[in-house]
Amino acid sequence: MISVKTYKNIPGWFDFPGVYDAAVDAAKSGSTFVEVGCWLGKSTIYLASRIRRSKKKIKLYAVDTFKGSPNEKPMLAVVRQHRGSVFAAFRKNVRDAGVTRLVHPIVSTSVRASRRFDDGSLDFVFIDACHTYAAVKADISAWLPKVKPGGILAGHDMGTYRSVAQAVGELLVPVRVMENCWIFIT
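User: That's the sequence. What structure does it adopt?
Assistant: Structure tokens below.
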């Protein structure tokens, strides 16, 4: 029997399972989710596994350049070890976790990927990509119109990066903070 890789075995950052649990619990069958910033798939695999356990038909898109954030030197070193992209490692992790059919990867920048979706078509968008002020502001501006009324736009590192808190504070009021994540109901 093949050993199934869980999200806990994958390098990366994921300290907000409650946010993903709440999103899946609140979602209706037929919902569409987007995770922006997937790295090696740790959080993506958790979310996909949670969707599978819910037995709801939720479509999950995973958006990333898979080239690391330009301001994160440790990430760039890992990307160099993978010959310029960690996409193959992401796909292998998703496959090993048994969630390939649930995860629809989009290799793209965040803003470019947002153009693939109609305004008001998404139920949940989670942003955890480049953490510079300009990038976070651009991501929020690009994805906010894509979220349905009553849907959720959220993101990570509210308390970790001043740039994230500043961009969120300027564009979205009020936000709820949970597990170092900002959550905005449209």
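The two ends are 45 Å apart (CA to CA).
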